[in-house]
C-alpha cells in the first residue's frame, strides 16, 4: 500500500470517510427494496441464531427433570433446535443471494460513472496521470465499495443485531450483572483489538514498502546486469539488497510477534469473561435462582458473541484500507473537467467549413507561453500547412481546434462560430484527424476501421479502405477484416497503421481534416504512397497539415512557418523559397539529408 494511502488513514481522514460513506448511498438506491429484504433475512438469521441457546437451555432443563414428561417434550425441542440451526443457515444464504444484485450493481454503477467522468476530464489530466495508476485506482476503488458493503451486511450489522438481541434477553431474564459482564468483556475485547491492530498496521505497511523496495532493487540490479559486471559492483548490489531485507526482517518479526500478542490477548479476554460469567452462573445455580440450563445459556451466548469478534481485527483493517481506496475514487470524481460545454452551448452549424485562428495566444502553464498572436484562415476546401522545428507549437494548433484546451487569448472559429460556444460533441464530429502516432485498439481490423463511424455499412468500410489503399492488403489476410491487430494478433507496419487511420478519418466524413505529422515515422517510399492518398482525400476538405518534412507540403495552398510559437513566414512553396528565410534554410537542410539517405541506400 502506498504512502499516499497510508496518509489517508490518519485521523483527519475520518471526516472524509463519513462523507464517502454517504456518497455511496445513491449507488444502493436503485435496489433499495432488495437491500431491505437482505437486512430482513439478516435479522431472521440472527433471531434463529440467538434462539439456539434458548432451546438448548430448555433441553438441558427438561433433561434435568425426573418426571415422565421427559420422553415427549425433548423430541419437540430437539426438532426445534435443528430447525433453528437450519433456519440460521438458510436466512444467511438468502441474505447473500438477495444482496448480491445490490452489491454488484453498485460496483457497476460506480465503475461506469468513473469511466464517464474520466472521459470528460481534460487532456491535461490524462497527460499528467499514469494510465496504469488510474486503472489501478479504479479497480481498487470499485472493489472497496463492494468490500465496505460486504463488511456492513456480513460482519458489522449481524454483530449489532446479535448483540442487541442478546442484550434484551440477558437484561429482561437475568440479573443485571450478566449483561454488565458480557458487554464489559466485549467492550474490552473490541478496544484491545482496535488498539493492537492500529499498532500492528504500522509494521505491516512498513514491511510491505520494504518488500517492494527490495524487489525493486533486485530487479534493477538484474536489468542492469552488464553495468554491474562492468564495474565489478556485485557486492555493492548485494549489500544494498540485504540491508533493505534486514530492515524488512525486523518489521516482519515485529508483525508476527504483535499478531501472537493480539491472539493471546483476545483469548485471555474471552477466557476471563467466560470464567466470571460461569462463577456468577454457578453461584446462581447453587442458590437455586438459576437452573443448569441458564448456566449453559449465558455461557453459550458469550461464546457465540465472540465467534464473529474473532475476525474483528481483520475486518477493522480491511475497512480502513477500503475507505482509503474509496477515497481515491471519490477524489477522482470530485475533479472538475477543465473543458466544459457552456450551459447554452448550441450545435456547430457547418456551412462552408472555414477555419479561423484569430490572434490566438496559448499557454499550458501561466509562465510558459506556447503560442503568440497566431492569426490565419483556412478557407473552405483549402489546404494550409504549418511547418517549423519541433517545439515551435505546431501540434498545439490541432489540440486547440479539437478544444482539448481553451485558448488563453483570441479565438478559434469554424464558420464564424467560436469553438467555446458550441458543444464539444458537435465540434469533434466535424473534424477528422490522422495523427502522428496511430494507436489501434486491441481488436479486429473491422472494429478499428468502423471506429470512424460505428454505424457505417460494410460496403462503406470497404470503400474507405480502398480510398486509403489498404483494401487489397486486408482482403489478402486469411481472416480478412476480422484479423486481430495489436497485442494478440497481427503486427502492422507503420504504413499500414497510417492507412487504417486515413480510412478511419475518411469514414467519419468530416468537413475539416487535420494531418498531424501523419507521415513523419515512415520510410520515403511508403511516405510518397501515403502522401498521394492524403492528397486525394484532402481534395474536397478544408485541410490543416502539420508537418516536419517540407517535401510533403509543397502542394499546399499556403504554408505557415512557425518559430517559437509565432508565425514568422507565410506563402506558398515558391514564394517562401524566394524569401530565403527559415523555410528556405529548412528546405536546403532536408534536401541534403535526403541526398545522403539516398546515397546510403544505394
How would you briefly describe this protein structure?
65% of the residues lie in helices and 10% in strands. It is of the alpha/beta class.
Q: What value does the Rg take, in angstroms?
A: 36 Å
Write the element-wise H/E pattern from the N-terminal end onward: HHHHHHHHHHHEEEHEEHEHHHHEHEEEHH
| Poorly predicted tracts of residues | 1-12
Strands of the biggest beta sheet: in what spatial order? 6-7-8-3-9-10
Content-based structural category: alpha/beta
Strands, total number:
10
CATH superfamily of the largest domain: ABC transporter type 1, transmembrane domain
Q: Which CATH C-level class of the largest domain is it?
A: Mainly Alpha
Question: How many angstroms separate the termini?
Answer: 58 Å
Helix content: 55-70%
* CATH fold name of the largest domain: ABC transporter transmembrane region fold
Overall pLDDT: 78
Corresponding CATH architecture of the largest domain? Up-down Bundle
Largest sheet: 6 strands, mixed
Bulk shape = elongated
Count of discrete structural domains: 4
Tally of helical runs: 20
Beta content:
5-15%
